[in-house]
Design goal:
This protein is mostly helical and about 500 residues long. The protein is built from 20 helices and 9 strands. The strands form 4 sheets. Strands 4-6-7 form a 3-stranded antiparallel beta sheet. A two-stranded parallel ribbon has the order 1-2. A two-stranded antiparallel ribbon has the order 3-5. Helix 1 links the parallel strand 1 and strand 2. The longest helix is centred in the middle third of the chain and has 31 residues. The chain starts with a strand and ends in a 10-residue tail after the last helix.
Length: about 500
């Protein structure tokens, strides 16, 4: 099924489909007239006498240098090649797909002045599974993601490297094998293609999709722990959360209630339980997960807007004027990435405390030390808990906001920048850490539930436990556990844990 992008109205669901699948992507053909009109306006300016930034002038600090009409094509080529200064590991294919789709959306609004041939080539790259090799480092998030996007455009020109169906090769060779011709950029096209926040936004969207999936998984793992330690569901009473009023808190409390409803374990200690209250990591799950959910939803609004935005410069406005602004400044994306980092960190922090609760015989209400028979002879999940603590601490260190770390660049012309790109880039590593923390929590919780037999957990949690046991055997004696942790983390990262509890879903989609 081809995904048709309607600039100004592209949804997060469509963007997540682009990220998670290989479906072909096309721009809505209805946008063609506006695109062609803006390109014609640029061609008119090239033949005129007036100096217009980015069309017949230099760039950045060199904006005052006038470029002759005969040199406009060379100007655009030089711009791209000179900006291919990225370093670091190449961005993964799903992110590159998102970058190209986001660029289609931005150019598709008809305010950038590119020819329709540019749109067609980006669509063709996606259709033929040609992914430009884009180094992950080198952008400061203003004026646009210059270095990463320059590597994308270089591949369109037959320069640099690309992957064709997963095989890396020179970009010129990839284009030739697909029957495509390298593009010769016309006036303004190079600038339109590399000005913009598409790399930062794609990485932030990756973080958003992962954080929302992780939070839903954390509700499952948290519910499993609640039952394993024979925790109370009273703190999840709907009226408690209605009285506070935060939507995320209300939704997560309802999800926890649904997950735990019907548990024999819960029913067994409704009366005559000498404990008055559970620790905060059990009792305050809705308050913490709900606050994280509200942040994730806030970020979703910001990134949905940014995904549909025109973020290059200068722009061709509706009155036929060409105006220099600053939509390339990625501060909204930088803030969004920093907010996601907070949410990711806190989801992991409270999950780690639940793991610590499970393995502590003084706190776990009758479970054996480190969740293994014959503790002492066996260490059980002792070091798995330590690993979760290490990952939690690493995420805390990465939560420091990137957006406050501006530095002047380009001879002080670009004197305040957002740092959005690496602010969003770090979310991938933080999510990998969080998936592992939640995987360890799920392993420990299912182990704990099995010590409660013959009492059984709820139907949804039993389905989750069965899904875990399909891949990870019970821990009866000490064994090599790294593979188990990796498998459990993958259950979280892939969404399989969420899918295991039924089709209705834990939370509504973003």
């Amino acid at each position: 099924m081809t995904i048709i992008l309607k600039p100004g109205a592209v949804t997060l669901a469509e963007l997540e489909c682009i990220y998670r699948t290989d479906e072909p992507v096309r721009l809505d053909p209805a946008m063609e007239p506006a695109i062609r009109k803006s390109a014609a306006r640029v061609a008119e300016i090239v033949q005129g006498e007036a100096a217009v930034y980015g069309i017949n002038t230099g760039f950045g600090k060199l904006a005052s240098v006038r470029i002759h009409a005969d040199d406009v094509v060379t100007l655009q080529r030089n711009l791209i090649l000179s900006h291919c200064c990225g370093v670091g590991d190449a961005l993964a294919k799903p992110v590159v797909r998102l970058i190209m789709a986001l660029k289609l959306i931005s150019l598709g609004r008809g305010a950038s002045g590119v020819r329709y041939e540019v749109i067609g080539l980006i669509e063709a790259l996606l259709a033929h599974d040609i992914m430009p090799v884009i180094p992950s480092q080198g952008s400061v998030g203003a004026s646009g993601d210059l270095a990463p996007l320059a590597h994308m455009v270089a591949a369109m020109m037959g320069e640099g490297d690309a992957e064709l169906r997963g095989q890396r090769m020179p970009a010129a060779q990839a284009l030739e094998q697909a029957g495509l011709r390298p593009i010769i950029l016309a006036a303004k096209e190079g600038l339109a293609l590399i000005n913009g926040t598409q790399a930062s936004t794609a990485l932030a969207l990756k973080g958003l999709f992962g954080a929302h999936r992780a939070l839903q998984s954390a509700l499952i793992s948290g519910a499993l722990v609640t039952d394993a330690v024979m925790g109370s569901t009273a703190p999840f009473h709907d009226e408690i959360h209605q009285l506070r009023g935060h939507p995320g808190q209300i939704d997560t409390a309802r999800a926890l209630n649904w997950l735990l409803r019907g548990s024999e374990i819960r029913l067994s200690h409704l009366a005559n339980d000498e404990r008055v209250q559970d620790p905060y990591c059990i009792r305050c799950q809705p308050q913490v997960a709900g606050a994280a959910l509200d942040l994730i939803r806030q970020v979703a609004v910001t990134l949905a807007r940014e995904a549909n935005a025109v973020t290059d410069n200068p722009l061709l406005l509706s009155d036929n004027s060409v105006v220099s602004g600053g939509n390339f400044h990625a501060e909204p994306v930088a803030f969004a990435a920093d907010i996601l980092a907070l949410a990711i960190s806190e989801i992991g922090a409270i999950a780690q405390r639940r793991i610590a609760l499970l393995v502590d015989p003084a706190m776990s209400f009758g479970l054996p030390a480190f969740l293994v028979a014959a503790p002492g002879l066996n260490s059980g999940m002792m070091i798995a808990e330590v690993t979760s603590a290490a990952l939690m601490s690493e995420n805390k260190q990465m939560t420091h906001p990137a957006s406050v770390d501006s530095t002047p660049t380009s001879a002080n012309q670009e004197d305040h920048v957002s740092m959005a790109c690496h602010g969003a880039m770090r979310l991938g590593r933080m999510l990998d850490n969080l998936y592992a923390i939640l995987g360890i929590e799920v392993m420990a919780a299912v182990q704990g539930l099995e010590f409660r037999l013959p009492l059984r957990t709820s139907a949804p949690l039993a389905m989750a436990a069965r899904r875990v046991r399909e891949q990870i055997a019970p821990l009866t004696v000490d064994r090599y556990m790294a593979g188990d942790i990796a498998a459990a983390a993958q259950l979280v990262a892939s969404g399989a844990l969420i899918d295991s509890v039924g089709d209705q879903g834990i939370l509504p989609p973003l």
